[in-house]
Design a protein that fits this description.
255 residues; alpha/beta; 11 helices; 16% strand; binds 2-phosphoglycolic acid
């Protein structure tokens, strides 16, 4: 059965000392059974935060990006091998901010996903539409296209290391959350797509997270939906008390 996942995305926030304090607080949280907590930490802090969270309570760290090549002359980039060597085994790929500001395409993300999977990483693959796309009623095809273009040439066994994060761009950092019904509808669409491509068993075993202004006040309602297996949380993951409440919002025990 798939897992519940509460993933934080710290983005380009927090000083080193604030990051350490936040990780220390979160490492003490009593995480509900069957739930993984993942912290998307800026690269310079990963090794230290990884040590702070340890292995005690289902809290682990993720990188927010990796390069598509294994190594070489790519100034300023970070490889899966480097991340692996400091004990990081999860990477967030395809966040809409990277798609927009770093011009990451579906084709590039397909390469990154493959490099990460080959190195044994779990990949949190982000997708999501703009408001214009939703208003044109093209959101199902758009999100479906992102998934097909970057993930549909994977092998069946690769899917055990794929987590999908559906994050409508209009809901990220805006305070506007997709309604639980809007989110559920897209999650069911994504699960059906995976089922059509790779079979029901794989679709049922894949965690699909919702992201976009998840906060303590709405997490319970979102996570109660059948196909919503957790959240990728930006702003509200920067405060230990808020993120702890989100971690404790799961009502559907999935494992
Ligand atoms: P937000 O960000 O929770 O601040 O909307 C979510 C994300 O970008 O992952």
């Amino acid at each position: 059965m798939r897992k519940n996942i509460a993933a934080g995305n710290w983005k380009m926030n927090l000083s080193y000392s604030d990051a350490k304090a936040l990780a220390t607080d979160l490492s003490k949280v009593d995480v509900p059974a069957g739930t993984d907590v993942i912290l998307g930490v800026p690269h310079p802090y990963l090794a230290q935060i990884n040590e702070i969270v340890g292995t005690a309570n289902s809290v682990s760290v993720a990188a927010q990006n990796c390069h598509e090549k294994e190594k070489g002359a790519y100034t300023g980039e970070v490889s899966t091998g480097m991340l692996d060597s400091i004990g990081v085994k999860t990477v967030i790929l395809g966040h809409s901010e990277r798609r927009e500001y770093q011009k990451e395409s579906d084709a590039l993300l397909s390469e990154k996903v493959k490099v990460a999977l080959a190195a044994g990483f779990r990949v949190i693959f982000c997708c999501g539409e703009t408001l214009t796309t939703r208003e044109a009623a093209a959101h199902f095809d758009y999100v479906g296209g992102q998934i097909k273009n970057s993930l549909f040439d994977l092998k069946n066994e690769d899917w055990k290391n794929i987590v999908i994060a559906y994050e409508p761009i209009w809901a990220i950092g805006t305070g506007v959350t997709a309604s639980p019904e809007q989110a559920q509808e897209m999650h069911a669409h994504i699960r059906k797509l995976i089922s059509d491509g790779f079979g029901t068993e794989i679709a049922e075993a894949t965690s699909i997270l919702y992201g976009g202004s998840v906060k303590p006040a709405n997490a319970k309602e979102l996570f109660a939906k059948k196909d919503i297996d957790g959240g990728l949380v930006g702003g509200a993951s920067l405060k230990a008390a808020d993120f702890e409440q989100i971690i404790k919002s799961f009502q559907l025990a999935r494992k």
